[in-house]
Amino acid sequence: MKQEQIKTLIDALAASDLAELEYSEDGSTLRLVKQSALAAAPAAARRPAAAARKAPTAESAQQAPPPAAAAECLAPLYGVVHLQSAPGEPPFVQPGQAVEAGQMLCVIEAMKMFNEVRADAAATVQAVLVRSGQEVEAGEPLFRFG
Predict the structure, then answer these.
(1) What is the pLDDT of residues 56-85, one digit of tens each?
(2) Which has the closest alpha carbon to 143: 56, 70, 79?
(3) 3-class secondary-structure state, position 34
(4) For residues 91 and 8, what is the distance between their CA atoms, to the nearest angstrom?
């Protein structure tokens, strides 16, 4: 698939009411899922392989802390997180910083494409949950907002 074709599919999904889109061509398959759809789906359904690898025991499930009331920004796709525009540059956002809706939070590199992750709403960054250069899976929390 060509980069222009992928961009067209991303734009088509964004403009539609669909939650996800899957496209296959010449043995390659591209699956796109809206971030809002990822937030609504249970974690085990989003990452069945990861859930199977890390299945908690009954003992560890009881010790798990309750989910935080604060909102989280989830990774929209699998890739490598970049918290700054270039090495040595300041990060896009830092804990304690107020962000506006649409403000860039980080970039996720996947298949040599850089995908911007932007804030859905105005909030204050409470915590950065990943480090630059870290691989993340779709649905993995990146930032916590307070």
Answers:
(1) 444 444 454 444 446 999 999 999 999 999
(2) 70
(3) coil
(4) 29
Q: pLDDT digits over 31-57, tens only?
A: 788 765 455 544 444 444 444 444 444
What pTM does this model have? 0.54
The letter for the amino acid at 130 is V
Q: 118 forms bridges with which residues in the sheet?
A: 104
Phi-psi region of 115 (alpha: psi -120 to 50; beta: other; left: phi over 0): beta
Q: Which amino acid is it at 78?
A: Y
Residues 6+ apart with CB under 8 A from 64: 56
Q: What token pair was written down for 50?
A: 């990861």
Residue found by looking up tokens 């989830």 in the block: 74
Amino acid code (one letter) for 10: I
> In the numeric block, which tokens belong to residue 43?
């974690």
For residues 100 and 134, what is the distance between their CA atoms, to the nearest angstrom? 25
Confidence of residue 3 (pLDDT cuts 50, 70, 90): confident
DSSP bridge partners of 99? 123
The one-letter code for the residue type at 24 is S
Nearest to 113 by CA among 32, 21, 20: 32
The length of the chain, given as a count of residues: 146
